[in-house]
Amino acid sequence: MNNEEQPLTQEDIEKQKKIVEDLYKKEKEERENYLKITESQRKKSFEESKKEIKKSVNEKAFLIDRKRLSDGKRKEIKPNMEKSANAIKASINEKSYIIERRKEKDAERMKLKPRIGSTGATIEPLISEKAFYINKKKEKDAELKAIKPDIVNTINSIQESVSGKAFIIDQKRQKDAERVALKPDIEKSAKAIEPSINEKTYLIERKKEKDAERMRLKPRIGSMSHEISKSVNEKAYMIERKKELDAHRKTLKPDIKKSAEAIQGSVSEKAYMIEKKKELDAHRKTLKPDIKKSAEAIQGSVSEKAYMIEKKREKNSELKTLKPRISSTAEAINKSIQEKLYLIEKRKEKDAERKALKPDLQKSAKAIEGSVSEKAFMISQKRESEEKRKSIKADIKGLGEKLEPEIEKIEKKKLDVGK
Length: 419
Description:
By secondary structure, the chain is an all-alpha fold. It is 88% helix and 0% strand. It has helices spanning 10-37, 39-76, 81-111, 116-146, 151-181, 186-216, 221-251, 256-286, 291-321, 326-356, 361-391, 396-418. Helix 5 (151-181) packs parallel to helix 9 (291-321) and helix 8 (256-286) runs parallel beside helix 12. It starts with 9 loop residues before the first helix and ends with a helix.
């Protein structure tokens, strides 16, 4: 038997037990020391958390009370079904009209029968173009498989960037170690945070006051119903206009021959562009890049990047030597805190002044009256202009005669370019 396979003696077992006991005692002592050191801090954090929980509980209790009051008021409210039905009626009629229109369109679509021959002829050039692109892709994939990269040169070119990244990682680690070593002054930070906490508590109180004011307000239902009735009438007018336009569109019949003649020029132009693209792709395939010249062109930018990395390293070493002035920064922070406190006081004064003000409703009503009458005038003007447009009928034949010579000129130019 080898030495490794021999069983442990009693002395070895006792030694291992002693080592384990020592480790356990040492760990226990370290834990106790740590708990003694952090005892005051833990007590302090516990008290703070208690205060925060108490505050949040009070806020939640306030919100629950608010909710109960609002629920009680909602239970007392009794809606007027007739008025709500009248208000909803217009939207229900509109939706029913839209459903009927959809059914009519579906019935019209069911009656339509597509022309498979003409669609096949239009699709054929697109399919041939796609097949050409697929063949081009296959050829490019084969070329890429045939290429063999120069690994040594790529390693040499990457080496500088890798070393730069390694340097940045080392810098990051050093900074992390420095941050871990730092110990913040909790009292100063608490003093700095105090004004912002006071501001937040003030804003919460303001919100509560505004909620209480809103609860006291009662809207004017009569004026609101008058405004809604106007908008309902306007929507009903728009629905009628839509119905008339749909009926007018049904009567129209497009001239397919003329539209085909107008499109023919753009189709021939697209076919010419596809042929030109094929020729350019074939020409590009014959070209072969000069790698040496491209390497010489890149060399300058690579050396410039290496120089920039070296400059960055020098700057980082300089920054490490610098030490910030804490007293001056504390003075600057103190000034900003004082300014914020002054602004909060000013804000409180302005809020108190606003609360004391009471708006004059009659003057505001007079000011709004002019804009309301102006809007009514604009709506009536819009209706008149729509009625005038309805009466106008476009002269399609005259427009076709005017456009015909221009279309012939464009086709002649295209033929000259093709020749």
